[in-house]
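User: I'm writing a short report section on ligand binding and want a predicted complex to refer to. Could you take this sequence and cobalt (II) ion and write out the structure as tokens? A short remark afterwards would be nice.
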Amino acid sequence: MSSGRITIKNAADIEKMKAAGSIVKETLELLSEKAAVGMTTDELDRIAEDYIRSKGAYPSFLGYMGYPKSICASVNQQVVHGIPGKYKLCDGDILSIDVGAKLNGFHGDAARTLLIGKVSEEKKKLVEVTRECFFEALQFCKAGYHISDIGAAVQKHAEAHGYGVVRDLIGHGIGRDMHEAPDVPNFADRRFGRGARLVPGMVIAIEPMINMGTWEVVQLSDGWTIETRDGKPSAHYENTVAITDGEPVLLTL
Ligand code: MF3
Ligand code: CO
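Assistant: Sure. The structure tokens for the complex follow:
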């Protein structure tokens, strides 16, 4: 969770963040082209790291609090922070990939859930609704709204479909640090109140994590991987978003 003050980015900072964000976006596009049945998540990690470094950027996650890889790759019931390894992608998997890149002192952060082979309608729906949750939230990414408007929008859309909204992990401010203030929950909660008021120059990563079943999650003994408590699938969708005096700017899309 991110403490400290919210940093306001100027136009030059936002340009730098756009450059970092573009690399993240391109990496995700590359991975979505490459991901296929039989491939290991380690191979995807290698492709991502090579691409990010080829652009003169650094993979933000590598070494972050000891994290050993460049991307997070979370299949099916895994929610987030899956560590790439020897797992071979199977027909019908959904694969959440999270990518971060640092360039010229600023980070970009985004995630997509990919469909591997022939995926069930039920899982496809989860992935699509999770993406929609982000865009529901984006409507409130304008100066004058509050952080809680974002979470309320995500929660309303997800719960309307009977899905669970993960509460243990949340979005965040982003800039020179990957995790900055403010916290950006995907739900509205009295404990969080209305949250900060959005102002131009704020940059936040909005990242709905939506479960087909219960919102409850557990952490595996590897110290990273988060899974759903009931073993049902989960999807993730994230972009880095700059607040302006008009429409929000998507830095990773
Ligand atoms: N991208 C994740 C987030 O949005 C962070 C990944 S944790 C790491 O907060 F250790 F893998 F970096
Ligand atoms: Co993030």
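A remark for your report: The first strand starts at residue 58 and ends at 59. The CA atoms of residues 83 and 222 lie 9 Å apart.
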